[in-house]
Structure formats: C-alpha cells, structure tokens
Amino acid sequence: MASLLGEQLFEISRQGPPPPKDFFQLVNTKNEVILRSWRISLQLNCRGAPPKELRTSHLEFLHHKVLQQQIGTVFGQRILEYTISLCQGKFDYLERLPDNLMLCIMSYLKLKETTLLAQVSHRFRKLCNSEKFWEHTVRNRCAGFTSDMEGIANAMGWRKTFFTFFNTSGRKEQQQGNRTIQQLRLSVIIK
C-alpha cells in the first residue's frame, strides 16, 4: 500500500480571510508540512515581495498550536483535522486508488450502495456519475441490453440510457420500458 503514497500527500490553496486577502498554500508531504503565503496588497512596499514559507516536520506540526490555529483559520477545521491525521500517519488509501480499480470495486456494489458512496467525497460522486461507471452498469447488470443499443447509449449517454430503459419501478412502467426497448431494437435493425 505504501506505493500508493506519492511524495506529496495533500495540497490545497486558498485566499485567506479578510481584511488582508493574502493567498495561502498548504502542502503536506511524507515528511513535512509546508505553509506558503503571498501578501496581496496595493501598497508599493508590498509589491514584488517574495512568498513566505514555513516548513515543519510532522512531529513538530503536531505540537505547533499557533500554526495549527492559522491553518484552521485559513482552510477550516476539516482541513486542519485532515492535516493532523496525515501527520499522525493515518492515510486514506481508498481515496488514493486509481479510478479504474475503484470502478472495478464499485461494480460489486448494489446501485443503492453506490448512491451512498457518492455522498462520501467529491471523487466518489464524480466516479458514481461517470459515463464509465454507467456503461459498466448497463452492460453487466441490464438483461435487456444488446449490442444494437450501444450506439444509442453512446449518443444519449449511458446514465440516461439506464434510467430511461432499465430502471423502471412498477409493472406498468416495466411494460412501457419493454415496448420502448423493442421499438429501439426495431429502429436499429431497420437502419
């Protein structure tokens, strides 16, 4: 699992709170926490000033309450807590898996479970709404899908194809969906 960790574990940039409106960057590497700040000002004496940089080891950061308070003020409590957990060696390996491997793992989940997964993070929401995920879902979970429908799915989108033709609730909608699939097949055969 250690191979999933790059040299840089986390990075975020943000404009600081008013009034100064300075710009900040927080970088957490395997060994240290780096906080950079750029002074944003219209005053002549501030123009061309180099950024300030504070580097501290993980252990030092855990005891540096002033730096923690500054990071909490600029980036928020959640980012501060995440930075502290990284400094304590608590890594989220699931977030670091490549997309293709995550999509493979997600293929074993029920669709209701993927809706819950999509609420976990921005990355999981993006994966759960991706065309790759929905293509895999339609191809492997929808019994009525045929290769004739592939062109239509590519044109209208795999997610929309799933919800239009395969995700029906109730008997009446199921019958209507089956008729639509048959019409779709006929139109593909005729062309």
UniProtKB/TrEMBL annotation:
Gene3D superfamilies to which the protein is assigned, alphabetical: 1.20.1280.50
Domain annotation F-box: ranges: 91-137
Domain of life from the UniProt record: Eukaryota
Cross-referenced InterPro entries: F-box-like_dom_sf, F-box_dom
Protein name: F-box protein 36a
Organism of provenance: Seriola lalandi dorsalis
Lineage start: Eukaryota, Metazoa, Chordata, Craniata, Vertebrata
